[in-house]
Design goal:
The protein has 10 helices and 18 strands. The chain is of the alpha/beta class. Strands 1, 2, 5, 6, 7, 8, 9, 10, 11, 14, 15, 16 and 17 form a 13-stranded mixed beta sheet that branches.
Length: 375
């Protein structure tokens, strides 16, 4: 089998010509995101600074909880497309050039959308996979040369500056340390490809698309896209909510809100992001089968470009379809099974199956020893 990373050889040879490389012990080491990127982004968008969500953005319902009856695919097949992405980042070592140094990372990022047919069979509708080489470009005198070489490696390969500035929201999630930024950067790049893929799907009307995670920050890019929602398994625990109680208002935190949420029910919808998104929570599973009250709950983000009240019946219908998705589960295959939709799990597997294995990556990106590199 040919080395899948062979197109990167010129870039690595240039690095070795210009600087020393201190390899990671045991070759490539996977860098994980701490904390979870999805939860960080969710906190920044909806739960920062003790913000109280007090604007109900649905009508006519004003109740804090709404009981649902599951709507199955055989009755009304609403949820047709499911989109997920994945990113894996490996630390290869440190590039040392005089008194300057930069961590060297390679990431595999990908996104896939699966389409469910009326008979329940699922197939991949569209997917994308990229290999990304990342360094702190300002710390290397030959950074431009490396970027040019990676650009010549082919369409599957990308170069990215670990310390390249992003928008304020993304910068808060990334942090300032080059090594820790890499995994979050990879996830950010993955999300960009994920959104681009989602917008390009040739869907018919009322064929809903379920995006795994928050709705992107650039909602204006989706202004011509219909029938989609964001579904989050890992969400911020910080928000507080103002619930109508008789003639008064009761303030509760997320734990209180969800601990009282019955099975097969949803919360009322709250306005976030200046009313452009309606947010509500749906309990897919009974608490008695789970280890923690917040398990079995998903957060749903519903686009609302006009900022007007959303029809409660429309929210009920989508929520009822989500409740029906609990019948098939990746139990035993994913620790998030309690809040995972099986088609999204399949999309995630489609992405990961397109990744080069960790064993092949470590073999293909094996650095020479320091003795061989020389001073």
């Amino acid at each position: 089998m040919p080395n899948p990373f062979e197109p990167l050889r010129p870039a690595f040879e240039a690095i070795l010509r210009e600087a020393r490389v201190l390899p990671a012990t045991g070759q490539a080491m996977e860098d994980l995101m701490r904390p979870d990127h999805a939860e960080v982004i969710d906190r920044l968008r909806t739960g920062q600074d003790d913000k109280i969500l007090d604007v109900l953005i649905e009508a006519p319902n004003r109740n804090p909880y709404v009981q649902l009856n599951a709507v199955y695919r055989t009755e009304k097949h609403l949820l047709r497309y499911f989109l997920d992405g994945s990113a894996r980042t490996f630390f290869l070592g440190d590039i040392v050039e005089g008194t300057r140094h930069s961590p060297l990372h390679v990431s595999q990022i990908g996104a896939a959308a699966v389409w469910r047919m009326d008979d329940g069979k699922v197939k991949v509708a569209k997917s994308v996979h990229k290999i990304v080489l990342m360094v702190d470009k300002k710390e290397l005198s030959f950074g431009d040369e490396i970027e040019r070489m990676v650009a010549q490696a082919g369409p599957r390969f990308m170069f990215h500056d670990t310390m390249e500035k992003e928008d304020d929201e993304t910068e808060k999630a990334l942090g300032k340390e080059p090594r820790s930024r890499a995994a979050h950067k990879a996830h950010h790049l993955m999300a960009m490809h994920e959104e681009e893929l989602g917008r390009s799907l040739p869907r018919e009307e009322k064929q809903w698309l379920v995006l795994d995670g928050n709705l992107g920050k650039d909602l204006h890019k989706w202004r011509d896209v219909k029938d989609y929602l964001g579904l989050t398994k890992s969400f911020s625990r910080d928000p507080k909510f103002a619930l109508r109680e008789g003639r008064g208002v009761k303030e509760v935190n997320l734990y209180e809100l969800l601990s009282e949420l019955p099975a097969s029910a949803r919360t009322c919808a709250f306005a976030v992001r200046a009313g452009k998104v309606a947010v509500f929570y749906v309990r897919l599973r009974e608490q008695r089968h789970l280890e923690y009250p917040l398990m079995g709950v998903v957060k749903v983000e519903f686009p609302n470009p006009r900022g007007e009240a959303v029809d409660s019946a429309a929210i009920d219908e989508i929520s009822s379809a989500l409740v029906a998705e609990r019948q098939a589960t990746p139990h035993g295959k994913d620790q998030r099974w309690h809040a995972h939709l099986y088609p999204i799990y399949l999309a995630e597997q489609a992405v990961k199956n397109g990744f080069i294995s960790t064993e092949a990556l470590k073999a293909g990106l094996k650095w020479p020893t320091m003795a061989a590199v020389g001073p």
